[in-house]
Predict the structure.
Amino acid sequence: MSEAKKVVDARGLSCPGPITNLTKAYRDAKNGDVLEIWATDPGFKSDIKAWIERTKNELVELREEKDKIIAIIKITAKK
Amino acid sequence: MINMAEKKKFLIVGGGAGGAILANSLVKDFDVTVINDSPYHYYWPQLLQIAFRNDYSNLYRSLSSLLVKGVNLVIDRVKKVDLQDRIVTLSNNKTMNYDYVAIAPGVTIEHKGIDGNEKLVEQYGDFHSTPQNASKVFDVVSNMKKGTFVIAVGDPYHRCPPSPYEGILLADEVFRLRGVRNDINMILAVPYPRAYPAETFNEVLEPILKERGINVMTFFTADKIDTENKKITSLEGEELSYDAAIVVPVHKGPKIEIKPDDAINQDGFINADKFTNQILKYDDAFAIGDASTSANAKTGVTAHLQAKVVSKRVLGLDARNTGRTNCPTELGFEKGTFVISDYNHPAAKVPANTINFIMKRLFADAYWDIIRHPEFWDPIFDVYFENTQPEVLWKLFR
């Protein structure tokens, strides 16, 4: 099985929000995959950290660009 | 006056809120045909009223009674839409061509998308699929005496984002009225970091859930259900035991073949621009409502507003979606609120009160008239939406 990198574009979403898109992508992902999530919702930074803490996946990078917040996640904890 | 012969052909696939409002808004200027797979138009929010109040009153009406004179209605299933050749194929392989098409058939509910949910729904029902399943929920909440009652979300892209918390609060109302609430542990399990995904609105909701003694399990997306041992496992790797449970099922796009293939995403939803509803490069094709990726929330108001945008765009106006939501929600015990947001503003903190509950009920009762008479309701809604913009509400409710 090959590992994949997928971009999840959740820009402009605040209700229900970017975690919705992440959950959807997580269902289809497998261990080793990398998800790159783009968001503009300011609450996303703390939400993604909480998600990582609960699910025990790996947060590779969390950075803010001019027009978006980018989180890069490596899926490592899927059962 | 435009002669019938000169009017362009506008096909609308689906006669739900979006399709019917679009048809009624276009009939003066186009030769409009609605194709729907059933003679009935369902008001899906009524499933909650069936599930927790055994109230079937607003469930459906005949679609023909909701369409303005002059709109053609075809009752058939659409098999295929070819955007390149402008051809719609029906179940009997009969084809129809068009100058414009709008695809608005809603979602497909797939219980099998979550392992064990087909069996679970047979036992306890749900309030996102059919009236029959909603009536099973009413049997459960009317008879349960003790144990753990769970509502868990299995798919965050479900219809009506507030419905899971509405469901648990209405169940709480039933249990309290029956005098069994003290013996029932109630759990709302959601994929989000908090009870409601939008943090701002969560500030309204969370104190209500707390006051009513409802436990919230966060970051829990129902993934597998073991109906023998009565356990739900989440995508995130945790377990939840239940005595009765409802899992909000997986929603997929419509079962219609759409050409070219890149017009739909991996879940079958139609890729449409979130501002204009246009499908890819086809300026004669639109997708609106739940079936479309352009809907940021799968709600009737989104379909309604998108239908109005499309009806203006095809007349040459530069109308655009603002992403406005306007979800009236019930909290039980005659309290209600609204989840109101748009692309640029998070959900406002609209307080829970009885006026908002009455507004929700009035809206539900006016629903059929709103569909049938856009000429009467459009100016009323223009005033309503103008004065309840999220930026206005944000100034009122801080």
In short: The first helix of chain A runs from residue 18 to 28. Chain A has two helices and four strands.
